[in-house]
Every structure is written in C-alpha cells, then in structure tokens.
Design a protein that fits this description.
Layout (H helix, E strand, L loop, with lengths): L6 E5 L10 H6 L5 E4 L8 H11 L4 E6 L1 H12 L4 E7 L8 H14 L5 H11 L8 H27 L15 E6 L7 H10 L3 E6 L6 H4 L1 H14 L2
Parallel strand pairs: 1-2, 1-3, 3-4, 4-5, 5-6
Helix pairs in contact: 2-3, 4-5, 4-6, 5-6
C-alpha cells in the first residue's frame, strides 16, 4: 500500500534523542509520516544538515527544537526548495554570545572529570520550567536520553553548536509556512529570540506555550502537537 502521508523530519536538541519527539511521532502519524533525524554522528551543524538531506525524501516538512532548530536553519540555507513547511521550536537564529561559549566549555570540562550525569544536572534548570524540576516522568527521560548520547556525542554536539553561524540574515529568504514556537519561561532561548525570528520570516506564525520552559515538546506535548497539527494541515 502506498503511504500518501507527507514526510515530516523531526530534529532533536542537544543531548536528546528521538524519544523527545515521542508524543508528536505518535499523535501526528495520521497527518504525516514522521522520521527523526540523526544528530549523533557529526561535530558541525552543516554536517548534520547534509546528513539529514542525504537521508530525506525530495520534499518534506521540517521541525527542530533547540540545536535541532540550528540544523533546520542550515537545511534552509542549503536546500530551501525541498522544505514544504518549517517549524522552529525553542531555538534562535543567533550564534553563541561569549558567555554562552564559556558555559559550554565549562560543561565539556565537567563531562571529562567525573559522572557524565552531572552535566545534565547542571543543564536541567535551563531545560524545564522551575515548577516541574521534581517531576520524574519528565526529568528521568531527559537523563536517559543524555546517557544515550554519551560523553563523546555531547562533545561533538557542543562543538557543532559553538561553531554555528549567525543565521539572522537568512531569515527573510525563508518562503515556506513557518511555525515559531517557544515556551513562555524558556530560560535557554528566551521568547524575545523567537519573536526576532518570527518578525523576520515573511510567512511565520509565533506561538507561545504558557507555563513551559525550553523542552516544550516534552513539557507541554499536547499543546505542541496541536499547534504542529495546524501547521502541517493548514500551513499556519
């Protein structure tokens, strides 16, 4: 039987795997054919984008969260004609500020000193809403994904993120329907950075998830999936 569902490629964030998209993969399968991109092999955002394009069908919808958004923007630079719709979740178009790079280098140093889990412990308050730090059903999968990525995978991903280009000049050239989504309390990529992208992309819609931090697809999965369904079906 022919699968007539449009392809949807989902790109995970730093220290995350396909598990972060579990709700979207399950509950959007009636309107799209979801596949999760591989972000574990490469140490450059462009290389991740090239790998995604090599594995992808000729045309597809594309969604990325955090680091996944950086990869999605790289795909838009390289092959915009192949992307039918774009979703940028809890991400930004800017490159790292110096203090962000210093924090990443400190985390890399920590990862080499002792328990790798300590890196996730340091990052967690930036990843999820403060009121949800004690929710094991949310937090333990994040730890498990980080362990699956591992110390070497984390080092590759951090190198990729630290060396990514500033993508702001590319935003006005994005022509496809674009959903820009952000948790209201995102501490890692604050809402103003999503507003900046939405203002610069001609066909963008900005959606804000209330009582939500950086991990919107996991923190508020029903809300994110509903917004992505509208984006996939209606292009908004």
């Amino acid at each position: 039987m022919t699968d007539d569902r449009p392809p949807l490629i989902l790109v995970p964030g730093l220290l995350l795997t396909e598990r972060m998209w579990a709700h979207q993969t399950a509950h959007l399968a009636d309107v799209a054919a979801p596949v999760v991109a591989d972000t574990l092999q490469d140490d450059a955002i462009d290389a991740m984008a090239y790998r995604l394009l090599a594995d992808a069908p000729p045309r597809f919808a594309l969604a990325g969260l955090s680091m996944g958004g950086y990869v999605a923007l790289a795909v838009m630079r390289k092959a915009p004609e192949r992307v039918s719709k774009l979703a940028l979740l809890d991400t930004q178009a800017r490159n790292d500020a110096p203090e962000q790079t210093r924090r990443r280098r400190a985390l890399l140093a920590l990862s080499k000193q002792g328990r790798f889990r300590g890196v996730t412990e340091r990052l967690l308050p930036l990843l999820v809403h403060a009121d949800r730090l004690g929710e094991r059903a949310l937090v333990e999968p994040i730890y498990a994904m980080a362990e699956a990525v591992g110390r070497d995978g984390f080092a590759r991903q951090q190198a990729a993120v630290m060396n990514r280009p500033d993508a702001r000049a590319d935003l006005p050239r994005i022509a496809c329907p674009t959903l820009v989504l952000c948790g209201r309390e995102d501490a890692l990529t604050p809402l103003d950075l999503s507003r900046e992208m939405a203002d610069a992309i001609p066909r963008a819609r900005l959606a804000v998830i209330e009582e939500c931090g950086h991990m919107s697809a996991m923190e508020r999965p029903q809300a994110v999936t509903a917004l992505m369904r509208d984006w996939l079906v209606y292009g908004r």
